[in-house]
Amino acid sequence: MNFTPLSNYNLYQTLFGGQDFNWQEINDEYWAFLQHAIIRVKPHDEGIFWQTYPEKDNFDLVVNYLAAEEDFDSLKLNLESDSITSLALEKYPGLRILKQDFEQTLINFIISQNKNLPAIRRSIKDLISKFGQEVEVEGGVYKLYPSIERIATLSIEELRSIGVGYRASYIQQTALQLTQNKSTDRKEPTSISVEHGVDSESKSEMTENGLKGLPSDKARELLMTLPGVGPKVADCTLVYGLGRRDITPIDRWGFRIYEQLYQNKPTNNYEIVSRWFSEKFGKDTAYAGQVLFEYIRNA
DNA sequence: AACCAGGTACTAA
DNA sequence: TTAGTACATGGT
Fold first, then answer.
1. Which of A38, A87, A90, A270 is buried deepest, with most CB atoms within 10 A?
2. Selected catalytic residue, list A232, A265, A280, A283
3. pLDDT for residue A184
């Protein structure tokens, strides 16, 4: 295995908190099952021992996924200017935000709606074990997270078998749309912007690169046209799957943070709370939201 | 045995 | 816009 030092990095809380459902504990190691790779991590005091499969020694994949090169110290300084966030940070030092795969994040958070963390993990684990492609790892056989194309071919019945209930059609339809957008994206490489209808133009932007080119509110609006994707799932996708840091997803806990921790007037209006976070924490909103989420959830 | 879960879609006022 | 409700299934 390779070794990479990691400083001020709360590995366990980062991998197994509420932001990422792809990691499993296997014999004192942490394994992530992605669409095209498996990341294997063995924690160590000063960093991690790691390996990737089926392509081995993929340093860029690991460092990028773990956001290991992010300047956490200056981030920490900014967050400490707020006393409540500072308190949360004391309890969860070194909590990072990972850089997950866009499509996988979208599907996972569609599954997550109205489920608790253990139930989410169980469904995703089943999705992988039932429908993932096999890869050989050190003589054993493991499975990747199923590709979005594969998910698009699954029947409602197959999807129901992983315990996602009414979300099955959301998953199926969203996966179908993403694969279709990917293929039209390839046929029309870049901008020879001929007469696109608003509709087809929007669709062509519903790709990883298309969304990356849009401001957060616009990208969220577009993501919300997908079935099963409301503001919360859209924001999770933007933050965890597209690297956005100027917003934070507002779930039940987000509303509690807004009302109880910061003594704001109770509301059930997503936009109001979302804007409050972004105006208060600016470019570090995602980090503030993340550490406050872990803080209030375990209070 | 209820009640809740990192919500969303739908309906009616 | 805002308020209420059904939804499949599993965790506690």
1. A38
2. A232
3. 76
